Amino acid sequence: MRDTGPATALRTLARRVEAATPAGRDRGIDALRALAILGVVLGHWMVTALVVDTGTVHGTSPLHAMPELAPLSWVLQTLAVFFMVGGHVGAQGYAAARARGERYRDWLAARLRRLSRPVAAVLLTWAAVGAAMLVAGVAPATVSTLLKLVLSPLWFLLVFAGLTAATPLVMRLHPLWPLAVVMHVDLIRFGLGGPDQLGWINLGAGWLVPYCLGALWARGRIQPRNRRATGLVLTAAGATATAGLVHLGGYPASMVGVPGAAVSNLNPPTLAAVCFGLAQCGAALLLLGPLRRVLRRPLAWAAVALVNLSAMTVFLWHQTAMIAVTALGLFAGRPLPGLHTVPDGAGWVLARLGWLPAFGCALLVCWGAFRVYEQGAARTRAAGGLVVQRGSPARESEERRA
Q1: What torsion do the CA atoms of 181, 182, 186, 192 make, to the nearest 10 degrees?
Q2: In this structure, are residues 351 and 337 in contact, taking their beta carbons and an 8 Å threshold?
Q3: Distance between CA atoms of 106 and 17, rounded to whole angstroms?
Q4: Are 42 and 241 in contact (CB under 8 A)?
Q5: Cβ atoms 49, 62 nearer than 8 A
Q6: Residue 170 to residue 163: CA distance in whole angstroms
Q7: How many domains does the chain divide into?
Q8: Which of 128, 231, 233, 331 has the fewest CB neighbours in a 10 Å radius?
Q9: 269 lies in which domain range?
Q10: How far apart, in whole angstroms, are the C-alpha atoms of residue 122 and residue 134?
Q11: Residue 339 lies in a domain
């Protein structure tokens, strides 16, 4: 009798993904991007709490009551790696487009379309949900909390879109230049008592550092023969600088914002966050070789490829998944630990870890409902039943070889 169990289905899917993957695909790059996205998702799920109190819902963070959890942000705040990979892929894609004679505006429009359609879907959905909650009598403070939770990550996409548009200029820029801008902004802001508003310059300059590093890598300035040395230098120098800034410069230890804190390392990025991001980028370069070896296995590669095909959907809907589970939990009739309670101790952390699978299942439902807006944002072709997009990892690999 033919075996049609889950294991067989997974192996079949892995073979289809393997067959649809171009021979020259750099699977390690895709793994870094997938790890960066999943780090952000898990980070938000662990450091964001929705507390039900006196008929309203408000957001808080376990880092406020438990600063000893700051190392969690060192592992799960992975935006720098995403920007480095984005700079690498963007610079290679633009170089390939120029080689084909493609106009800059056409190249940029194709990349921005893949961002805009999934964003439009989440905005329209939550506009309707927010309006429905207000009509149903939900407290405006609760609606505001939920909308802020869902929409606040969009700042990242705005910055990424801006850096993507600037890719032709970024390809000529060394990462030390935006790093110098961040350093001087912090010096004026913290050392000379300058206005806090000046820090918003770092929203662009701070993330330009890893994006430039990725573009530098794409231009061949980080070769396989010196990639390990570069990774070691970036990791050691970035970690040492971050430790010095935290212990001697008074920067927060957490690499994400903490409610009530006087200074946030992330909003806007500080020199400590940028140096820490460089350490993460160095570690990513060191991981590249082992990741490539692991991803020779079809099952491992299939998981990474599927995350990359729906990376925007995962990023945009992961907070909605957490909110949905939190809302369904209200039907229990009492606050559930780790879901509705104040994050003030180890018990909350353990309970929250237990809720992560439920968040993941809810995210799978969102993925099934809304991935079409990401995969439909570009022309597609069928490859053994697997959809491969223009602008997707497989297509980008073809463009890099062009």
Answers
A1: 0
A2: yes
A3: 29
A4: no
A5: yes
A6: 8
A7: 1
A8: 331
A9: 25-401
A10: 18
A11: yes
